[in-house]
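Morning run. Coffee first, then this:
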Amino acid sequence: MIGRTKMSGADFLQLDRAHAPAGDLAGWLADAVHAAASDGRLPVGSRLPASRLLARDLGVSRGVVVAAYQRLVDSGVALGAGAAGTRIAARPSPAPEPAGPVVTDTDRVDLTPGVPDLAAFPRAAWLRAEREILVGTDNADLGYGDPRGHPVLRRELAAWLGRTRGVRAAADDIVVVAGVAQALALLARVLGERTRIAVEDPGSQGAREQIAFWGLDPVPVPVDEHGVDVDALCATGVRAALLTPAHQFPTGVVLAPDRRRALLDWARSGGLVIEDDYDAEHRYDRAPVPALQGLAPAHVVHVGSVSKTLAPGMRIGWMVLPEPLREPVAHLKSMADLGNAALPQLVLARLIATGQLERHVRRVRPRQRARRDAMLDALARHLPDARVHGVAAGMHLLVTLGAGDDRELAARARDVGVVVHALSRHRVAPGPPGLVLGYAAQPPDRIRDGIARLAAAR
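And here it is:
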């Protein structure tokens, strides 16, 4: 009698466990599916085998297959669709054959700060809400609407910002914009060219360049471990300031309570705070910090977007404006583009109203925490002398290194396939060198690999 042998191969992609390298079965399986999606053997929409069945065929634990599928979802190649199974979501570009030590795009680890986990975008929830909107919306909602934004979205935003950020606003206080970049452009036109405006130093290079492009004169104000130096701000004589008080970029510090009080006193004496609520929803080890706007609505412009919550490609943001600025900003918005597209506004409003947006934020937090923890562990192992800042919240860490040229180090890291920001690119005045490392867009194993390469380049 011929005895039964334990199966270790599958019809699916003709996979054979005997060909897998020792120690990383999940990586071997994920790489095989990635290659098949790249060369067309698995077209977009193809359903992957059920994890239990494929595990049985290969003679591995189901956890190996689940881990491989999760890597594919994290990289955007696959999409988990609940009862519908896991399917191929995109065809990745095939990696070119390396010539010598050249780093390919596939090998590159992008730790650019400010990039969210795009693979976590709630596609199923968005599609379901879009279908509901298309079935139930009035024809008039698809015509030229209010340039300030659809009333339904502005009403939902007012309620959502009130309960999650402590913002005090009604629908008429809000103008929907195409992200924070457009908010800054509109405010620059309202404030007038050559107006001096305080910016944090270090602070976002992109925000500084935006306001300078639109004619404002950025005046750097130092930031320390307690946030922006309000005494230094007062000494500049400026009457407007662009700040990130809830989670400062790039240091990650929260504006200290005594400085919050001093800043609000400055604003009430005739100043205007433009509060960029940069990635405030991404927090792990601290309580939420309420928005400044809730304490002084007449003196604070609160701006935010879904770029870090959902995806920057959505191009949806908002401004909560004091009364004197509402009509001027609304007029400029109308002249600029007649208002944002109606359908995405209505879909976002539905996600807020049904609680799907908040559920999405809660689902993403554990993924982000795991990625942050992987970066912290890798830094402790490979760069034990580095000081790490901004751990409790956000999507990036700031690492200060004591001495050296951080731009040169960033260039050497790029040569070995790791993309990081030098801290000095976000400075105006000289200061200690450092690196700004984003962790939101990469799975833990890629983060560990990137930090190991970074340490070798140092």
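Residues 407 and 436 are 11 Å apart (CA to CA). Good start to the day.
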